[in-house]
Amino acid sequence: MILDHHLMRSEEGALWLDALSASAGRKVYCAADFMKFPRQLLEAQRADLYRQMPVPAGWHDAYAHQLE
Fold this sequence. Notes:
Blueprint: H1 11-24, H2 31-34, H3 46-52, H4 59-66
């Protein structure tokens, strides 16, 4: 079974997936595991990433208006 997306938006989701896999006695994958890529929980790291790579003031508003 492959689970992904919202579950992997937090560190807790990744830990839950590992616990589920252990309790099921079978591997339950996220897409990254299945493709043999490292897990990158970008949403869980959002605050740190914005501190490391800040976006210009007004960027979020401009992006939101672009979608309208």
